[in-house]
Model the fold of this input.
Amino acid sequence: MKLMIIGATSAIAHEAARQFAADGAEFFLVGRDPDKLAAVQRDLDVRGAGRVVLHTLDLNDLAQHEALIAAAYDAMGALDAVLIAHGTLPDQARAQADVEATLEAFTTNALTYISLLTLLAGRFEQQRRGCIAVIASVAGDRGRGSNYVYGAAKGAVSLFASGLRARLSKAGVAVVTIKPGFVDTPMTAHLKKNPLFASPATVGRRIYVAMLKGEDVVYAPWFWRYIMWIIRLIPERVFKRLSL
Amino acid sequence: MTANGHRRAYQSWGRYPRVEQQNVRPVYWRNNDLDLARIDGPVLPYGLGRSYGDSCLNGGGTLLDTSPLNRFIAFDEEAGLLRCEAGVTLADILKLIVPRGWFLPTTPGTKFVTIGGAIANDVHGKNHHRAGTFGRHVTRFELLRSDGERLICSPDENADLFRATIGGLGLTGLILWAEIRVQRVAGPFIAKEQIRFGSIDEFFEISAESDERFEHTMAWVDCLATGKHLGRGLFMRGNYTWPKRIPRKAAEPRSLFTMPVQLPAFALNLATVKAFNSLYYRSQLTRRTFQTVPYDPFFYPLDAIQEWHRLYGAPGFLQYQFVVPYAQDRTAIKDILRQISQSGVVSFLAVLKVFGDVPSPGMLSFPRPGVTLALDFPFRGQRTLALLDRLDEIVRAHGGVLYPAKDARMSAENFQAFYPQWREFARHIDPKFSSSFWRRVTQTTHE
Done:
């Protein structure tokens, strides 16, 4: 299995990668920080990975995406699966006061995904097999007053992936949308932990299974499907008064 | 807490004492700039919180949660050397190395400890008489000090700091990664023999006879038995093996269940424990049994019940482990067993083992030649504390010492008598590092 992971130093992506490494997968890892990428590489190597190729890139530089995908195909010869996992949790208060910050958060969490998916879709449509997985979020299921900048970006990813799934299913390519709830990672280090928080390992293992099976939309852990189902049912005129 | 570590509370395993406010700072990357000097108050590394008392707690200070440091770095199968980050657990290591024919050089009774914690407490196991402590198999590690210095420590390089950090209770700095020597084994199964013994003298005979031929030895003691039954129990010994037929259900070690709630504190009382002990002792009908078992139930019987400490209810429990030198060991052990059986205070688990004379590398290491007994006491307030104070005096009178990783209550005076080298050790402590335990036994208040 030849696997490209974009945002490979994310704790969730790394946990998913460990599962593939135990199967002897080969990796093309993309991240911003070369030291962190190297730490992930060595870990996967010990756990049984085949070749692990590293590529350092700031993904907000959209102009580089085409070259990135080309480099991945050059290095690996082919790709069986791609996991797109990078992201930031923007400071909502700051975003509200600063258009630049809002647009930057939207670029990182939505536009980069749309750009990468568009480039990958053509290749996968032609090869007529494989799997593209994206990490969206439960936050993308409904706009909340406290976190709608992040939510809107992740919602855009979900919606885009949904349409792409319909298109690529004709070519036998799976598009998997992962919607994690709260996960205990560096991204949420500043948040107060509650019993709904899951470990990156739990979510990573779920991603591995979902990608192997080519599932459609996966909530991780599973109970978020029901929490979000209820949250979506609340009428807007009630929802807008809740402080969520 | 689950095996791979999502944690909601930063307590110790005995859940006594409870420490109030502690800040937590997770450590995510070994090569990132981590400016310890900028954190307010004292800091202390925290792995999976399996120390029983307060040596892993830092009331009023900050815990450096090392569980995200869970990456492997290298596994040299030619030399049998494994390098990994400090938060990697023994369970993670076993999952990697057992299928490749290797095993840990020695292991404590739970695999849910981090390698950083195993070094900081210089843990020991059932093969101490052959392998010595965990620290014997540590070839080097990297230590981050609060002044930003990163030091590679090994028996040859920064040797004093190496010796101070092994068994150093996390006080000498933050271990970022470590390298250990792993062991080739005949197979991931244990050919196990279990022998019933009727008295403490019989225990010593079996133990002496076993150490030659068996890699692993230990015994369970019924510490409520009195009179001529004093010190009766079951002796377990075994060697690594590949059985001719693989026992069924031997595939993946799995946890049987999680203790869902705390039992009420009265669930473990004199009557229930007496009945359990008696039944357990009598459950073995013949004097000697033979069985081949997977490594997991042999080394980690309690890991099968996640959160087993909840058995003891809300007040928590105290562990008590001491070692006394060989020469006088029989009288000390007998004295202590007699005190316990007369006190009416219940000890549920009692584990007896003879340590070998392989020297421990750590300055403050607990294991030393002699016989060690580990006991569990549900916390019943003053009555429990008074009994343990009496036991301290017996241990001290016989030239023994207590195990800091299991302690929540020994006096500063006794600690300093048990570990007279503590002042020499203290010179290697990082000034930014401290723990609730250390402040208690050295009677200094930090800031």
Confidence is low (pLDDT under 50) at residues 1-7 of chain B.
